Amino acid sequence: MVLSDRAPQTQKTPPVDGEDTAQHTVAFWQTISRNLPGVVFQRVLAADGTLDYPFFSEGVRAILGFSPEEMRVTGQGCLDVEHWADRAEHMQTVRQSARTLQLCLEEFRAITRDGEVRWLRGTSQPRPDGNGGIRWDGVLIDVTESRRAEQTLQMVMDHAADSIITLDGEGRIVSVNAAVERLFGYSAAELAGQSVSRLLPDSFGSGHDEYIARYQQTGEGRILEPGPRELVGRRKDGTAFPFEISTSEVRLEGQRLFIGIGRDITRRKETEAALFATEQRLLDISVNMPGIVFQRSLSPDGRIGYPYVSRAIQDILGLDPALAPFDSEPFLAAISVDMREAFIAKVHHSARTLAPLEDDLLLTDAGGGKRWMRSWSRPRRLADGTVMWDGVMLDVTDRKWAEEQLTYLAYHDPLTKAFTRAHLLERFDTLAGKMLKDGQLLALVSLGIDRFSSINTTLGHAVGDQLLIRLTERLFGCLNEGDVLARVGGDRFLLLLTGMPDVAEIAITVEQFMTRLRDPFALEDEEIEISACAGISIFPQDGINGETLARDADVALARAKAVGPGTMLSFVPEMNARASRTLTLQNRLRRALEREEFVPFYQPQVDLESGEIIGMEALVRWFTPDDGMISPADFIPVAEEFGLIDGICEQMLRACSRQQLLWREEGLRVVPVAVNISGRQFHQPKRLVQSLEAVLAETGLPPSLLELELTESSAMSDPQQAVSVISVLRERGLVCSIDDFGTGYSSLSVLKSFPIGKLKIDRSFVLDIASDPNDAAIVTAIVAMAHALKLKVVAEGVETQQHLEFLRNLGCDQIQGYFFSRPLPAAEMGRLLAEGRRLTLPTL
Asked: Does the residue 590 lie in any domain?
């Protein structure tokens, strides 16, 4: 503490009328600051220069071992405890603050009751006291440990190879070490004989010269004050930096020398500035924090009051803190009605148990808005039985809203606002017992939108999202009270239908949902028509566990989708067995992709004019270590359903390209090989093109030896995109053909715009052309149409001489089938090419 130059007053003046008020103020501050860290104090510098400390908080006892009364006994506070070496400078700091009314930042050593030296750091705000004097309200914090750490570090640095400068008695540089050269940018030769002022800015250099002169004359001056000094150094390039130096005087052969050991303290000053900023922030917390510091009281007669509140209450509730103490009515009125009684009950419970009170309160602020405030307060019982809490309320509105948003998202789909699967199953668990008791049924309905992915692909995800929102609104409109709708996937929903009297009513209700969804949706100037499939499981006849019933409904939905769009199926146990087989097959397919178990078999395509092999189709075969070959009819649908078909097609492309190169290296006549492209690949053109380019670059295969087959349904699902993709492939030298022609829904106006090379007639039309006039007519029409469009025609499934003769008479260009050759492994196909085998053609 700063000490007065004046002698302490030994005779106290009689009490005046304001003394009771002053004592009340001291008691008030003693109470409210009891739980605060450090020491809260008041300091008064009277107009006549007398220094007085009318108030110390109880914290002084913990730090110095003296009671607040002992500290106040002389009126000058720390006269007997402040270290003598710090008094003058500390007093100067206080008087400077009094003159400028600027914040007083003070640091000094104090002697405890036990004789220990403690470092105290304080911050206090001055203000006129109305009597010509100055009053400071401040806080002192024990910083002994940090100071000791600094002193320990300083000792290490003092013995380190820091900057060392030797001066003669007139302040001229005698020698410097290498650290000085590095730090200041001068060489030792440049500095020798120069005044040390050369290393200081002008404002410091002139003052330093004066100190040297005074020391030479009087032997006194600041140059040899204990401990290091902080200066500002100036480098050769003119830049300034904070510099700390410790100076000592030595005598060498009768010559007076000064040795200075210094260092750049830029980083430390930055740290001190940050520390100061932190202290300032801590000082301002009670005023600036987004909350309210308060005292709450509960009197023996049950009245709640607030003897003190910080001014933040004016911003939050519109109440003037200067009116404190005031009763609880305005504050309690601001608490949400449904929380008010519970809060009052908690106050009384805390008063009985003296347990800390922590609560979240929803308050109405001055503008009518809502704010969540978290209140912490610690109670104590006063002599008259009153319970007093010291506390703080902080604004946690943002966090509360975030928690509520997270809770909402945990139970709601963010896009459609439908519930989540977890919430629906919670509702199921809640209702199941009641439904069972009432003899009613619950139905879980898994609903899936048919071909939703094609809507996203053709119209874009934004339209797809809008469609999901609109159809969810439509489904909500169909729900009865108690029913629950959840979105459980991209295009999948789960419905909980409650209070169903029988199975027939469930079926009727689900059909109404599906019928309602078939009504067109108007979006983006488009009328979009959709359908849905549904899988149903029923409580309690299909089971009593909600999770299991939901899974069973999903299984029924998967089976319904396999049947076709718009299908509704109820769960039967056999579906689980099929689903289990499908899941097992899916896992085996994934492992097969990793092990590259898929291999191509090659079926020749023969020209009907020359009888020569002019091409071949690669057909995928899966050979497993355990079961041997698995039929494509068994695994292709599963691969398509679970998105594994892309990987299989890519493996086939790579294997066929490598095999073509091997045949070329063997000197065989190589013909183009046709590889099937899945619909998924075709609708991801960027990935398809990148994959093809990678295969061709890796193998070096000419694009003319690779033909891509896509099904009619894939091409016609988005004709505009099909034309674009086929054109891109054609630009890269790849030929495309339409496979399984006749099984889809082709438009001739669209077909003629496709840049393809050939059509392949599906084998289902070829098998009975000799006996079925309809099939014969269809094949005849396809051949004529293709030739009119200048396309080659390949007939698949040619197995008999009759098939051959019929097609040759029609002018069909090529055939493929068992009549010439079954699909062959690569080795056998190579031998067939080596033999130059031809088809013997009958004479027309």
From this structure: no
Query: Which of these, 243, 247, 240, lies nearest to 267 by C-alpha position?
Result: 243
Domain interval for residue 111: 21-142
Average pLDDT for residues 305-329, to the nearest whole number? 73
114 & 202 share domain:
no
**Domain contains 6:** no
Q: Answer yes or no: do 824 and 683 share one domain.
A: yes
Report the sign of the C-alpha dihedral through residues 546, 548, 549, 554, in that order: positive
Distance CA 68, CA 51 (A): 17
pLDDT at 16 over 70: no
**Among 381, 401, 421, where does a domain finish?**
401
User: Looking at the chain, how many residues does it have?
Assistant: 844
Query: What is the H or E stretch that residue 508 is in?
Result: helix 503-517
CA distance 818 to 807: 15
Cβ–Cβ < 8 Å for 489, 482: no
Contact by Cβ (8 Å): 759, 766: no
Q: Please check whether residue 379 is in contact with residue 274, taking contact to mean a CB–CB distance below 8 angstroms.
A: no
Residue 301 lies inside a defined structural domain of this protein: yes
Over residues 190-205, mean pLDDT: 85
Residue 308 resides in a domain: yes
Most confident by average pLDDT, 153-157, 332-336, 350-354, 627-631: 350-354
In single-letter form, the type of residue at position 689 comes to V
Sheet holding 568-570, edge to edge: 484-487, 492-500, 441-449, 532-539, 568-570
Q: What pLDDT score does 1 carry?
A: 40
Distance from C-alpha of 24 to C-alpha of 91, rounded to nearest angstrom: 29
The whole-number average pLDDT for the span 667-687 is 86
- Which tens digits make up the pLDDT trace of 124-136? 999 999 899 999 9
Same domain, 191 and 133: no
Please give the DSSP secondary-structure letter assigned to residue 103: P
Token reading at 757: 């090379």
Same domain, 421 and 547: yes
Q: Do 127 and 203 fall within a single domain?
A: no
pLDDT tens-digit readout, 505-536: 888 898 889 889 989 898 877 788 899 999 99
Looking up residue 742, the CATH number of its domain turns out to be 3.20.20.450
Q: Are strands 326-327 and 304-309 parallel, antiparallel or unpaired?
A: antiparallel
Contact 106, 141 (CB under 8 A): no
The pTM for the full model equals 0.42
Domain at 255, CATH number: 3.30.450.20
Say if residues 831 and 613 touch (Cβ distance below 8 Å): no
Answer yes or no: are the C-beta atoms of 792 and 786 closer than 8 Å. Answer: yes
> How far is CA 375 from each of CA 49, 121, 200, 289, 295, rounded to the nearest angstrom?
44, 30, 55, 14, 12
Number of domains in the chain: 5
Is 14's pLDDT higher than 50? no
* Contact by Cβ (8 Å): 109, 119: yes
Report d(CA 638, CA 654) in Å as an integer: 22
125 within 8 A of 139, measured Cβ to Cβ: no
Please give the Cα distance from 671 to 665 (Å, whole number): 14
* Whether residues 688 and 763 fall in one domain: yes
- Domain termination residue (choose one: 142, 160, 193): 142
